[in-house]
Amino acid sequence: MTKQTISVQLSTAKKQKPKADQLEFGRTFTDHMFIMDYSAESGWHDPRIIPYQPIEMDPAAMVYHYGQSVFEGLKAYLSNKGKVLLFRPEKNVERLNKSNDRLCIPRVDPDTVLEGLKQLLQIDKEWIPTAEGTSLYIRPFIISTEPYLGVAPSKTYKLLIILSPVGSYYKEGIHPVKIAVESEFVRAVAGGTGNAKTAGNYAASLKAQEVAESKGFSQVLWLDGIEKKYIEEVGSMNIFFKINGEIVTPALNGSILEGITRNSVIYLLKQWGLSVTEKRISVDELIQAHKVGQLEEAFGTGTAAVISPVGELIWKEENFVINNGKTGEIAKKLYDTITGIQKGALPDSFGWTVEVDSVSQTC
Amino acid sequence: MTKQTISVQLSTAKKQKPKADQLEFGRTFTDHMFIMDYSAESGWHDPRIIPYQPIEMDPAAMVYHYGQSVFEGLKAYLSNKGKVLLFRPEKNVERLNKSNDRLCIPRVDPDTVLEGLKQLLQIDKEWIPTAEGTSLYIRPFIISTEPYLGVAPSKTYKLLIILSPVGSYYKEGIHPVKIAVESEFVRAVAGGTGNAKTAGNYAASLKAQEVAESKGFSQVLWLDGIEKKYIEEVGSMNIFFKINGEIVTPALNGSILEGITRNSVIYLLKQWGLSVTEKRISVDELIQAHKVGQLEEAFGTGTAAVISPVGELIWKEENFVINNGKTGEIAKKLYDTITGIQKGALPDSFGWTVEVDSVSQTC
Q1: Helices marked H in chain A — which ranges?
Q2: Modified residue N6-(pyridoxal phosphate)lysine is at which positions (chains A, B) (predicted)?
Q3: Which residues on B lie below 8 Å from A169 (Cβ)?
Q4: Which of A98, A196, B194, B266 is the most exposed place for a label (fewest CB within 10 A)?
């Protein structure tokens, strides 16, 4: 696939930007969006940047009925030198294509998508918030558009990239959450779609989350769908534990999402000389470690929150407080380091940040 | 919930109807559709019939990202007395609400939805094809519409009903298909969404179906996600076997869809004095029965095909021909009886068919 030329149609009306202290997650969108179409005859074609606008589709469009769709999530930051920075965006496009394979969606050309994203960011650069903890959330997604009710892969698709300025995930700074180990509902199982970033996984998670919230917990800790014994993910994040000085995280097993923050955390921990092991972790093992005082830290990792410390686990109506309900040392250091690298405030020894070059764009 | 008044806006331009011999499944849609909105403040409101038209939504609409959606499928027939007949439509609305519960979507008022469907059918009555094997396929569906990227139940929804005249599922009459037992991919697992009619289940099934088709098989036979040992469904249908004179079908276990055709088949078989058992059936047991010559019939059941005989099973590269690859006696009798009842050609001793009353509608 060759990189295609991206056409640009600028918006004539500019929307009002929200104030830094009013930013929420994923509710406000910028002035423009990137869009590209797929048909069997033309492949992925007509990449373009247009004013942010509703999309119009036939009610029989397959995404509404059979959920054939994939998405990604990443963030852009404005460095204190005024540069637009992305964090490992090539990993997102790589994962998008892996999700495409699982969902029978044609692969995209990574260069075209990354170029489209960069141009879009240049155009909507003024939307990138700069206050502590804020960023511009980027949502690339692909939806199946063929108006057909047969259960089969769609013959047409749309890829879109939309941008949303987001506030700090933690209104009062990073703080630990209470999570319930989920023993009834299952998010995914080996052979299913758990390791693809596709809509159905998130739809399946809503009920357990609703039940957990009604009991006063923030998130659920998912167990494997087979034995309901091994730890998989927390909410829509990967999970790490520090047990007796060693850091462990569930090994990728086909039903766990291969998080880019997860991968970055593993690299950083190793660089710091810490022991980190990807392995199968049972909930019994975890509770046992807690009982003997060796469960020292727990935290989730994901794009939205970056690092989300777990202060309390609930399992079979019993509560297990971790690290006195406080943010652990490792979690804090990871949060500061990753957000520091993302914003260009800390040295980036892994070459993770990508600077979006200025283009001569009047906007 | 009280039944609401349905407003009607008729189409000024009529589309050309396809010829009976050109009908496919789910590609052509009628002149009108039913639509209704949900908001937290107004509940389900503004039920209306409008010309069939594209729907316009924000690119951040939750259905595109997190697949919070449910659907149903049923058919309307025109009897030889010119009456519009539905087959157990109240069961579809009941199941729609069960799916709503699992997907955290607010329940609908069954009377409003059924009344909307009936009025829509009266208006588009001329679209109901009458040739042998044809019918009007009805697709009610609900999609989440809130423009928000947080993973949470949407605060707004749309319910639509669209209609599609469909041809015979079997171009050359009912005929047996080859199906492969799926040992890699999993459709659903207990605790997941397998017993809800939601988009993600179908997205998850595409890859296995694609692989099966590339090897010359029509469908896959799904095994349970836990032990990959017990039979669940075939493609997007329920499955029945006749083993040594006894009819068996997998018991509803939380990951199997509660098919309305499945339920009707069980009733009919019992009425005919046949033994029918809902139980856990292992693939080993099935293969064993075949080896001793006791696997006498196999057939799928579902709205689209009604009854789909299985002529050959493929398991671990071995082929097992059933009933000499021919349609079994039971499958044929069930197909003739159910379609006969659906079209009003046979007596309906269970009171399954619902006649859509004429309304004084000029269309």
Answers
A1: 62-66, 89-102, 110-123, 199-214, 260-271, 283-291, 329-342
A2: 197
A3: none
A4: A98
Give me chain A's average pLDDT, please. 94
Angstroms from B158 CA to nearest CA on chain A: 11
Across the interface, whether the CB atoms of B71 and A65 are under 8 A apart is answered yes
Structure tokens given for B314: 């493929």
A75 chain-B contacts, CB cut-off 8 A: none
Let me know: does B56 contact B36? Beta carbons within 8 Å: no
- ipTM of this predicted complex? 0.96
Calpha distance A133→A126 (Å, rounded)? 17
CB contact under 8 A, B235 and A151: yes
**Which stretch of DSSP H or E encloses residue A78?**
strand A74-78
Q: Minimal CA–CA distance to B60: which of B135, B155, B139? A: B155
Q: Residue B200 is nearest to which of A55, A60, A199, comparing CB atoms?
A: A199
- Number of Cβ within 10 Å of residue B104's Cβ equals 17
Residue B348 has pLDDT above 50, yes or no: yes
State the average pLDDT over residues B5-17: 95
Contact B143 A64 (CB under 8 A): yes
CB neighbours of residue B218 within 10 Å: 19
Residue A363 clears pLDDT 50, i.e. is over it:
no
Tell if the CB–CB gap between B193 and A203 is shorter than 8 Å. yes
Selected from 2.60.40.10, 1.20.1440.230, 3.30.420.40, 3.30.470.10, the CATH number assigned to the domain covering A7-168 reads 3.30.470.10
Report whether B85 contacts B78 (CB < 8 A). yes
CB A185 to CB B192 under 8 A?
A: yes
Query: Which among A169, A168, A208, A172 is positioned nearest to A188, based on CA atoms?
Result: A208
Minimum-distance CB partner of A67 among B26, B69, B148: B69
Give ranges for CATH 3.20.10.10 in chain A.
177-342
CA distance, residue B103 to nearest chain A CA (Å):
6
B200·A193 Cβ contact <8 A: yes
A59 and B162 within 8 Å at the Cβ level: the answer is yes
From A70, A73, A161, select the one nearest A123 (Cα to Cα).
A161
Contacts of B67 in chain A (CB under 8 A): 67, 69, 198-200, 202-203
A177-342: which CATH topology? D-amino Acid Aminotransferase; Chain A, domain 2 (3.20.10)
Q: Where in chain B is the domain with CATH 3.30.470.10?
A: 7-168
Bridge partners of residue B248, in order along the sequence = B241, B277
Give how far Cα A270 sits from Cα of A241, A275, B225, B241, Å: 15, 7, 35, 55
* pLDDT tens digits along A262-290: 999 999 999 999 999 999 999 999 999 99
Say which residue the tokens 């794009």 belong to: A303
Identity of the residue in A56, A199, A226 whose CB atom sits nearest the CB atom of B54: A56
- Position A360 confidence tier, pLDDT thresholds 50, 70, 90: very low
